[in-house]
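Progress against Task 2.4 (sequence-to-structure conversion) is shown through the following example record, which the project officer requested during the mid-term review.
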Amino acid sequence: MKTKVFAAVLLSVFAFSSSAFAENWMAHIRGVYITPDNSSSPVSGVEADKQTIPELDFSYFVTPEWSVELILGTSRHEVSLNGTDLGKVSLLPPTVTAKYHYDLGNGFVPYAGLGLNHTLFYDVDLSSNLSVSTNSTGLALQVGADYKIGDNLYLNLDIKKVYIKTDVASNGNYLTTLDINPMLYGLGVGMKF
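Structure tokens generated for the chain above:
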């Protein structure tokens, strides 16, 4: 008897939860074109190249207008100095943004977001005497729009500016700071659930 009562209570809690929190989550999958806004100092001319990657994000809607988004993606970039190849490095920049959505009522929902990213540099394969010596924490700015094409399905356009920098060392000695600060242009689909 206790098992049946417990099962009934558990089922009613899940039924209430699923209706009370219906469509509080949204996921996007996008193709993203990354264009670094490279600058380096004191040694100039260090650059990371452009890349196209897949990106996945999950948003939780705190209210119909406000959401918190976790953005996941990784990229591998060729690094050069004044056109001379220095090798490759991978970046993992998990980013969290707070977004405001403005529903225009016609299926078009523009948004703007502000957040932080923490970039981890890994799989560093640079010339034998070069290394990347620091990870990075920086601001993330975001604008975009969802356009409803089905019950819970959306087309998505997303543009982000992410502030990323790292120190480059030669034989363990500081050489220069590379500001990558990429723009990310994304196009994809989203689903509310």
